[in-house]
Write a structure and sequence with these properties.
There is one protein chain. The protein is mainly alpha-helical and 206 residues long. It is 81% helix and 0% strand. It is globular.
Length: 206
């Protein structure tokens, strides 16, 4: 991918600061894919330009800060923000109404799964803020849980594929579907653990 190679070059020359700035651009809803940015950060770590664990920490902070900024903008300005020219391009009245409908149907689960839906994150987080459906702390908790799945996935994928371009490209194409499988497995583990806990609690009462 030309974009990936371009980002790798920029990040290798400018280090962590460039990665952080790029994530802020992603969080603002501009056309820079977050997953490719995270992979590029992992790649430069794999090539020796950064420490991969420090890169993971930085990217987690950058992702959460960008998401929080979008949420707080919506929370502070409310529906008035929809009149801003830049926001109106990203979040049209029709799209805003559709996201509100999704919130009515799925509740806070929308916030969690939005992280795994490219192109939806900014609109969902902004809508969550404008509608005051969730407190900032709850939003941050849900977003952090989701980011702890997606961010290390992309960063370490880039790290391990830094010296194998063909392998990296193959798994980047598979990445989104692989993420959904990972999310499904984690949800299954949580449900099984919850069921076993309830079963033990009932047995204890008996």
């Amino acid at each position: 991918m030309d974009l990936l190679q371009h980002l790798i070059t920029i990040f290798a020359e400018n280090g962590y600061v460039a990665v952080f700035i790029a994530l802020m651009i992603c969080g603002a809803g501009l056309p820079l894919p977050e997953d490719i940015t995270l992979v590029a950060g992992g790649v430069i770590a794999g090539l020796g330009y950064a420490n991969v664990h420090a890169m993971f920490a930085l990217t987690m902070f950058g992702v959460l800060l960008g998401d929080a900024a979008i949420f707080m903008l919506g929370h502070h300005y409310g529906a008035r923000i929809l009149q801003w020219r830049f926001v109106a391009r990203v979040l049209t009245p029709e799209r805003y109404a559709k996201v509100q409908e999704k919130f009515d149907r799925y509740g806070n689960r929308m916030l969690f799964f939005a992280r795994f839906l490219p192109g939806m994150r900014t609109t969902v987080y902004l809508t969550a803020g404008t509608t005051h459906r969730v407190s900032f702390l709850r939003f941050l908790l849900i977003d952090t849980l989701a980011a702890l799945i997606s961010v290390p996935f992309w960063v370490y994928l880039g790290f391990f594929g830094a010296d194998n371009h063909e392998w990296l490209m193959k798994w980047m194409h598979r990445g989104q579907s692989s993420l959904w499988v990972l999310v499904g497995l984690l949800v299954l583990v949580v449900l099984v653990s919850w069921w076993r806990h309830r079963r033990r609690a009932r047995c204890g009462l008996d």
